[in-house]
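From the shared-data thread, chain only:
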Amino acid sequence: MARIPHKTFTCAAGCTVEATLNLIGGKWKGVILYRLLCEQVLRFNELRRLLPNITQRMLTNQLRELENDGLIARKVYPEVPPKVEYRLTDYGQTLAPVIHALKAWGDAHVGREGTSVPMGKQPLDE
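Structure, as C-alpha cells:
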C-alpha cells in the first residue's frame, strides 16, 4: 500500500494577519484589550461598566478566550465574595503598538463621510 505524504503548508503572506485577527478580532476583544492596556488591572464589573453594551455572558466568553490564548491573566483572590482581577500578560502587552495603531486609525477616520460610530456607542477615552 502506498504511503500518503503528509501535507505541510507554507505560510502565505497574509496568513499571519489572519492569525492575528483570529486572536484579537471580533466585536469586543480589541476593546477589552484596550481597556486593560489603559487601566492595567480591572475587575469583571469594572469591565462591564466600561463596556455597557456587552452582555455578561459575552464578556465572560471573551475574557475566557483571551485568557486561553495567553493574552490576559485572571487572578482570583480567596475572599467572600470572590474577587477576580484581569490584566494583560507580558505576551498581551506585545499587542500595545497594534492596539494603539487601531485607535489612532479610528481617531483619524471615524467621522469621515459615510463612517460613523453606531448610536449608543461611547468613544474610548484615554
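DSSP finds six helices and three strands in the chain.
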